[in-house]
Amino acid sequence: MASLDRSLIAGLSVFEGVAAADLDRIVGQARSLRIAKDQPVFEQEQEAHSFFLLLDGHVRVVKSTPDGHEVTVRYISPGELMGIAHALGRTTYPANAIAAVDCVVLAWASHLWPTFAANFPSFSANTYKAVGSRLQDAHTRVIEMATEQVEQRVAHAMLKLVKQAGRKTEEGILIDFPISRQDIAEMTGTTLHTVSRLLSAWEDQGLVKSGRQRVTVVEPHRLLLIAEGRAEKS
Amino acid sequence: MASLDRSLIAGLSVFEGVAAADLDRIVGQARSLRIAKDQPVFEQEQEAHSFFLLLDGHVRVVKSTPDGHEVTVRYISPGELMGIAHALGRTTYPANAIAAVDCVVLAWASHLWPTFAANFPSFSANTYKAVGSRLQDAHTRVIEMATEQVEQRVAHAMLKLVKQAGRKTEEGILIDFPISRQDIAEMTGTTLHTVSRLLSAWEDQGLVKSGRQRVTVVEPHRLLLIAEGRAEKS
DNA sequence: TTGGCGATTTGCGCTGGCGCAAACTCATGA
DNA sequence: TCATGAGTTTGCGCCAGCGCAAATCGCCAA
Prior knowledge:
By secondary structure, chain A is an alpha+beta fold. Chain A has helices at about 5-10, 20-25, 115-120, 120-145, 150-165, 180-190, 190-205, 220-225; strands at about 30-35, 40, 50-55, 60-65, 70-75, 80, 95-100, 105-110, 165-170, 175, 210, 215. Chain A folds into two domains: about 5-145, Jelly Rolls (Sandwich), CATH 2.60.120.10; about 150-225, Winged helix-like DNA-binding domain superfamily/Winged helix DNA-binding domain (Arc Repressor Mutant, subunit A, Orthogonal Bundle), CATH 1.10.10. In chain A, helix 3 (about 115-120) packs across helix 4.
């Protein structure tokens, strides 16, 4: 652990307001892991032995339904916690978490949580604040699914990805991990066919550039118009 | 407050594992309120000055979208907390909470939360456990919206209502508060027309009995078959 | 360089469920 | 008792988007 960059970790929002000495005590009890692309960080229904902080990479969180459908719940970016089932009174993970690229994570044993919560109130408060955001996000998703058409939902999804994993290139803002049409479909509750058609149409209009497992947003502003439902359809 | 039935309150799951003396200290700082039918308990975007425990009645939590749509996030039953924005690091309420019938609630000032969290770890843990369930529920909703057809979603919604607010009658299980077709539509992301058609069809098949703002489920088991997508359509 | 496979594109037909509109039915208050 | 209006039912037409299938593209490995 000594090899990790403490100052970088200290800047993460989960550790905001945590004293340096406390930070050391927290991080000191973690082990660091590498997860190869497409390997699971944790799996649905499994005993929640650990919780994690993503340091590098991107992780896709997917829920499988009994009837074989897969729905992507969210993508996790560096600095975010995941697998905090124990902090929410659950003993198993509610979903699969799969590395979208090679990742580096910190892992703590779940049984440490009560101690952390009691001894490091800032850390605990920050964690629950993140939970609040996720609950918010989930409700937003429900509302989008309930009130928006597919095109708007896909546009919203792309903008969300741009915001949390966008990397500037000379062509536009690239989503910085491999993402297929199927993945986007699973985020928005549609089919890869429809997503493909939409991306093709957007590409014709110069809104995006896309290729195999790769999407670059050229004109975020116009995409936002579509997302908000205020765009005249061609 | 002295007039409220402490032993009844003590049995609520939020207070599980809380010592009697602590319970008194918690409840002693609440004030009890009556909310008339159709009146708000709290409102979206408003400063989250208080959090609440529903003692009697039913509360509908609704989010309004900028474009005028309304989506019902969930119904709250007696014994549940609501408006706990502060515990999740937010300063405003994320939705409107409206009394579906005359209600009785306990209200605490939001600024008490950090103290409660620090001094009554069981209470805090129970609260976050409830938050965990809600996050779970929200994700389930997303998955339902993404993978199921309207008929299944409405069936699921009815079963959820039966579970949390069902009252046995000689005809079947009655949903114990006034609920309109429009309300059900807002829970499931469809229109009141479609809900009306579904309920009529179900009534023809003897699955439910329904009337003005009133639904009774006669055969929960067959409804479950529809919800699970394993029912031959007539 | 050549296969082979996974990802993507595209055409076509069909249908679930929405939008609109009109009729109907109660419950409530005057 | 009757008028009123909210809640509900129902008919009809339409279209967004799904399901299926086939063709194409591009990356990687041999």
